[in-house]
Amino acid sequence: MAVEWLESPFERKSIQHWMKVLDQDGKVLGRVDCVGETVLFVRRRFSRKLWAVPLARVARVTGKGVHVAGRKREVLEPEAGRKHAELVTATYPLAEPPATKLEAARHVSA
Asked: pLDDT: is 83 or 69 the higher one?
């Protein structure tokens, strides 16, 4: 994952449930169903079938959605029961929030 986009104030800092997943051409692949340890689980519109997109393919996260490197066929993998084998969450933080002075003062006084 490229790190420089995390510095931008215009980029989102987490992947959340039901965000759009877009390929490198901007075409919608589906929406985030949940996030595993190594993959995003994507559900396509009007379908019960889940697909997996490796987190290593995530290029950036914006207000429009999660942008992944590659085109549709090369990005989507069959889910194949991985959802039950991984720890899943609805929100995946990409960056730690910056430490504030108030938090630092709280730790010093304790």
From this structure: 69
Closest C-alpha among 70, 38, 71 to residue 52:
38
The structure's pTM equals: 0.72
Of 1-15, 44-58, 66-80, give the lowest mean pLDDT range: 1-15
CB atoms within 10 A of CB 27: 10
Residues sharing a CB contact under 8 Å with residue 78, sequence separation 6 or more, in sequence order: 51, 52
Phi-psi region of 65 (alpha: psi -120 to 50; beta: other; left: phi over 0): left
Neighbours of 8 (CB within 10 A): 10
